[in-house]
């Protein structure tokens, strides 16, 4: 939906707004709302993750400094205190490695939400054009465009499951989507 269309209906009288009412425009507005909410949530979470990344960068630097200081301790202190410090630094390193895995999950989630946002905005524009929505060829082109967005096996599997459900006119269950492709568990980290 274009900004001018939204602006022209915003200040219009109820009669004028009703005259411009179409189900397609209402669907596009709702899809636009969903896309805007997702964008806002992603933006807020990106700021929080940026703060966490800065904190972890400080932790890495501090761990290195503690290791360097431990190496400089006199031998008699190194035997008593140095071993404990080394164990603590090792424990911190393990926790940071766990945090890196969590960041990978977040990165994957952000990418997937970006694909959903793009799909919503593309669909919003698509449904406003009745010539496109009534043409099976146009729907196929739209689906092919969206299919190319999905980079992970999990995303491709979900897309395929939903498309098969639509083609068979059967319900697509969450359980079916969570089964995933053979050998890949849904939610598994995939490095990219």
Task: Report the helical percentage.
Answer: over 70%
- Tell me the fraction of residues in β-strands, as a range: under 5%
The major pleated sheet works out as: none
The total tally of domains equals 2
Individual helix count? 8
Distance from N terminus to C terminus (CA atoms, Å) equals 34 Å
Radius of gyration: 26 Å
Tell me the series of helices and strands, N- to C-terminal: HHHHHHHH
Shape: elongated
Class derived from helix and strand content = mainly alpha
In terms of per-residue confidence, which ranges show pLDDT below 50 for 5 or more consecutive residues?
Answer: 1-10, 174-192
| Mean of all residue-level pLDDT scores | 76
Number of strands: 0
Strand-helix topology:
Elements: H1 3-10, H2 14-19, H3 23-72, H4 75-127, H5 130-133, H6 136-147, H7 153-168, H8 174-179
Helix pairs in contact: 3-4
Account of the 3D structure:
The chain has 192 residues and is mainly alpha-helical. It has two domains: 22-148, no CATH class; 150-182, no CATH class. It has eight helices and no strands. The protein starts with a helix and ends in a 13-residue tail after the last helix.
For this entry, give a set of tags.
disordered C terminus
Summed up:
This protein has 192 residues and is mostly helical.
């Amino acid at each position: 939906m274009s900004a001018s269309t939204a602006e022209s209906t915003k200040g219009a009288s109820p009669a004028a707004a009703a005259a411009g009412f179409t189900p397609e425009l209402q669907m596009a507005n709702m899809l636009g709302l969903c896309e805007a909410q997702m964008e806002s949530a992603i933006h807020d979470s990106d700021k929080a993750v940026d703060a966490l990344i800065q904190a972890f960068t400080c932790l890495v630097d501090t761990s290195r400094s503690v290791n360097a200081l431990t190496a400089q301790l006199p031998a008699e202190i190194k035997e008593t205190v140095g071993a404990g410090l080394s164990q603590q630094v090792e424990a911190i390193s393990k926790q940071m490695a766990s945090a890196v895995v969590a960041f990978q999950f977040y990165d994957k989630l952000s990418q997937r939400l970006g694909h959903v946002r793009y799909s919503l905005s593309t669909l919003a524009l698509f449904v406003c054009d009745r010539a496109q929505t009534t043409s099976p060829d146009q729907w196929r082109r739209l689906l092919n465009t969206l299919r190319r967005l999905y980079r992970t096996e999990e995303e491709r599997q979900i897309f395929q499951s939903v498309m098969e459900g639509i083609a068979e006119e059967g319900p697509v269950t969450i359980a079916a989507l969570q089964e995933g492709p053979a050998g890949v568990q849904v939610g598994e980290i995939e490095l990219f």
